[in-house]
């Protein structure tokens, strides 16, 4: 699940919602209790007043009914029905709420000796007080929500600060740096547990790096020595005058394969060491390397009618390992030569980029995103050529782009303007 707000704001919002729900519930309960008590108080008051009036009326029928701005009484019998509002005459005994002449009243009704005693109480002031009480409750709810949000934000700062500190410390950790214990500086809670997991991960990462360094050293020794033997033997065989042309061709293929394998091994070792660009002291003349690579791959065009056009607009010198750059250029040239049976291969070099365009079979549009993945090949073969090219480009901060049309050809463009110094 993805959240658009930070953890502290989510905590603050949760507190605000909790405060709002609780305050609304309390406001509802208070309002219900107030209205209920108010009605009970009115009922008791009207009942006592009406009871007192009935007692005085029984003793003296000439007693004047109570009458004031908020209260008035009626004595209703058959002789007075014509002068009495109809709504009063038909009301049963008990407490009622009613409308009379456009005003709202509480009405207490008693029936005694065939007479109906009615006491009315104008509830206009009560309704006005109820509206004021509602406004007070609404204001209290809003204040409670604001205070809850402020409290939540304050608590969130205290709760999230250990997480932020842990994130800061994890952010400055270096994979090859000395392991730094984190758990000892945090309390034994969820954050402390997370810090312990980071400590365990650092240990696993350190162990992995140590194994990788040991493997790199072993590979450097175990592969370079036999490759050097193969290359030396191939050189000796090429000097053997007793070999015929077919045998010499096979020996040259062995020598080229050994040389390419040496370069790939060196490239893989350099990438495994994860050297930083600012530590690179080597320099490489790109134009000379390009001509060497083209000459070394011309054998791929021996049976094809292909013209190679090389345009060198400038001769940049890059602060990179020549072996790694040779891997990149060699893969681009080899692919162009291998998949072009007729037409031309155009190679253009300037201070900032190298372009290799061919008139070969092309690459389907839906496969353009796949060409830099390991073991991809347009002809179904296997290899790490372009995958290794991309790793080297990422290592030096280069950019490589490809465009292609099926049946018309492919164009690779390598931008190396971000790599070290370009002269």
Describe the structure.
This protein has 423 residues and is an alpha+beta fold. The chain has three domains: 7-146, Beta-Lactamase; 175-274, Signal transduction histidine kinase, dimerisation/phosphotransfer (DHp) domain (Helix Hairpins, Orthogonal Bundle); 278-415, 2-Layer Sandwich (Heat Shock Protein 90). It is built from eight helices and eleven strands. A five-stranded mixed beta sheet has the order 6-8-9-11-10, covered by helices on one side. A four-stranded antiparallel beta sheet has the order 1-4-3-2. It has a two-stranded antiparallel ribbon with strand order 5-7. Residues 275-279 and 379-383 have low confidence and may be disordered.
Largest sheet: 5 strands, mixed
Kindly provide the name of the CATH class of the largest domain.
Alpha Beta
Task: List how many beta strands DSSP finds.
Answer: 11
Order of helices and strands: HEHEEEHHHEHEEHEEHEE
**Any idea what the shape is?**
rod-shaped
**End-to-end separation:** 50 Å
Mean pLDDT: 81
Count the DSSP helices.
8
Q: How large is the radius of gyration?
A: 47 Å
Based on the coordinates given, report the CATH architecture of the largest domain.
2-Layer Sandwich
**Lateral arrangement of strands in the main beta sheet:** 6-8-9-11-10
Q: What is the domain tally?
A: 3
Task: Assign the CATH topology of the largest domain.
Answer: Beta-Lactamase
| SSE class | alpha+beta
What portion of the residues fall into strands of 2 or more residues? 15-25%
Low-confidence stretches: 275-279, 379-383
